[in-house]
Write a structure and sequence with these properties.
binds 2-acetamido-2-deoxy-beta-D-glucopyranose; 412 residues; 3 domains; Porin; endosome; Lysosome-assoc_membr_glycop; glycoprotein; elongated; Lamp2-like_luminal; mainly beta
């Protein structure tokens, strides 16, 4: 099962299309290893599954497939030191482990072996197994990649040995990452190079100036709230689209309400709405009170994981948006932009917020943004103009009518 990635947000586009196809979405493993200076030394994102054939106590053979890595841990993965090269170690399920080592040559780095081990003592995964114990499988892959290139393989790579089949696809990996920057220069596997009709050359999800898919569609509108005890103290309804520019590459990210959680806090002078999701560590909206009678959006503080494994963080606590009287809510149905910095903007759609004085979980009267109220202001003007025009028409007809009847009189 191959999913087409549509958006730059890991997971979102993937989940969507997999759902559309009615298939089980597969889980991508992702690791962004950092060294002591918090710089990325190794980045990997890939999908895999395993089929294991084992003998049962009744001398039959059973085959199990391992494809659930939701709870995978990466203990033991490390950047490498003087003696050892970098290493990825993954633990999952009940007693599975998977290891790959990287070594460096003059102008290349390589993966020589992949180790996988499974534990048949787990009777849920291996019911009725005849031989109980840990079974390791070593596969030699001998893959050489130029230094500073990222290896990519969308095609399926299969390794088979006796009882174990290993499948890998959608692989992106770079070891010996320089300057904390995952490379955009790809080294393709042979299968990707030759696959002409095998469609799934999935566009790379790593940001590079030529391949930035930009979802232009309006974001879905989500409703968020914050509670203080059992009382709702902050309400927000909005469609959010993030626009961030990094290294001259612009990413447009629509926030998907279904997979976004809200938390926060409410105090008399300040209120916080914090959104988070799998790729947004936090997106904070901080509201404040001014002149004791109005509220406004004072601060936005964001930290999010980008598809290339880096983290984008930014805060600005000197904003002035969404201004309305305390005791009311702020509404703006038109698209509006909150400009947090030159490199980070938030486009809002169908916005309705009330960060203070929420009574019984309901919005109070809304103060509309000028963009909306311009329209509302225009309607009475238009009606007025039309009415005025009508009055003039009626008056003129009356005058004409009167003159006609007067002429009529005179002629008699
Ligand atoms: C690396 O990040 C951790 C946690 O974010 C922090 O505690 C540590 O001080 C950072 N180290 C350096 C050298 O920046
Ligand atoms: C395992 O991966 C292969 C290759 O992508 C795929 O054909 C197969 O359906 C997968 N099996 C499961 C159970 O996900
Ligand atoms: C993953 O971990 C959670 C919480 O520990 C647990 O509830 C869930 O069953 C685990 N999922 C799998 C597939 O092991
Ligand atoms: C991985 O490390 C975490 C914390 O460092 C620990 O809680 C967890 O049990 C470890 N997992 C395995 C499989 O060793
Ligand atoms: C890979 O496996 C071969 C044969 O099993 C072994 O000789 C070699 O040392 C292994 N390489 C690494 C880096 O472990
Ligand atoms: C990776 O390196 C470690 C330590 O050098 C070694 O114990 C392990 O067998 C190696 N694994 C592979 C798959 O080469
Ligand atoms: C890393 O930075 C150094 C010094 O700024 C530069 O000479 C080198 O070319 C950079 N390497 C890569 C791969 O960008
Ligand atoms: C995103 O931001 C860039 C730079 O500020 C701007 O040129 C572009 O029009 C914005 N795109 C959207 C959809 O807001
Ligand atoms: C979000 O959830 C609602 C109801 O829970 C559902 O109707 C809608 O289809 C979901 N949207 C997506 C994109 O999953
Ligand atoms: C709840 O409201 C009280 C009074 O305004 C405030 O002191 C407290 O910090 C609030 N708690 C939270 C979690 O917002
Ligand atoms: C959102 O909250 C629910 C329940 O608290 C939790 O199960 C889920 O993992 C959260 N989702 C995210 C993206 O944090
Ligand atoms: C942004 O939020 C983070 C995490 O809560 C915090 O450490 C940081 O100080 C905040 N930045 C600003 C400018 O408020």
């Amino acid at each position: 099962m191959v999913c087409f990635r549509l958006s730059p947000v890991p997971g979102s586009g993937l989940v969507l299309l997999c759902l559309v196809l009615g298939a089980v979405s597969s889980y991508a493993l992702e690791l962004n290893l950092m060294n002591a200076e918090n710089a990325t030394c190794l980045y990997a994102k890939w999908q895999m599954n395993f089929t294991i054939r084992y003998e049962t106590a009744s001398k039959n053979y059973k085959t199990v497939t391992i494809s659930d890595f939701v709870n995978a841990t990466y203990n033991g993965s490390f950047c490498g030191d003087g003696q050892n090269g970098p290493r990825i170690e993954v633990q999952f399920g009940s007693g599975f482990s998977w290891t790959v080592n990287f070594t460096k040559q003059v102008s290349t780095y390589s993966i020589e072996n992949i180790s996988f081990s499974y534990d048949t003592r787990d009777s849920t995964t291996f019911p009725d197994a005849k031989a109980k114990g840990v079974f390791p499988v070593h596969e030699s892959v001998a893959l050489k990649i130029p230094l500073d290139d990222i290896f990519r393989c969308s095609s399926i790579l299969t390794l088979e040995k006796s009882d174990v089949g290993q499948h890998y696809w959608d692989v992106h990996v770079q070891a010996f990452v320089q300057n904390d920057t995952v490379s955009t220069k790809e080294f393709l596997c042979d299968k990707d190079k030759t696959s002409t009709t095998v469609v799934p050359i999935v566009p790379t999800t790593l940001p590079s100036p030529t391949t930035t898919p930009t979802p232009k569609e309006k974001p879905e509108v989500g409703s968020y709230s914050v509670k203080n005890g059992s009382n709702t103290c902050l309400l927000a309804r909005m469609g959010l689209q993030l626009n961030l520019t990094q290294d001259k590459v612009t990413s447009i990210i629509n926030i998907i309400p279904n997979t976004t959680n809200s938390t926060g806090s409410c105090h008399p002078q300040t209120a916080l709405l914090r959104l988070n999701s799998h790729n947004i560590k936090y997106l904070d909206f901080v509201f404040a009170v001014k002149n004791e009678n109005r509220f406004y959006l004072k601060e936005v503080n964001v930290s999010m994981y980008l598809v290339n494994g880096s983290v984008f963080s930014f805060a600005n606590n000197n904003l002035s948006y969404w201004d309305a009287p305390l005791g009311s809510s702020y509404m703006c149905n038109k698209e509006q932009t909150v400009s947090v910095s030159e490199a980070f903007q938030i486009n809002t759609f169908d916005l309705w917020v009330q960060p203070f004085s929420v009574i019984q979980g309901n919005y109070s009267t809304a103060e509309e943004c000028s963009a909306d109220s311009d329209l509302n202001f225009l309607i009475p003007v238009a009606v007025g103009v039309a009415l005025g025009f009508l009055i003039i028409v009626v008056f003129i007809s009356y005058m004409i009518g009167r003159r006609k009847s007067r002429t009529g009189y005179q002629s008699v």
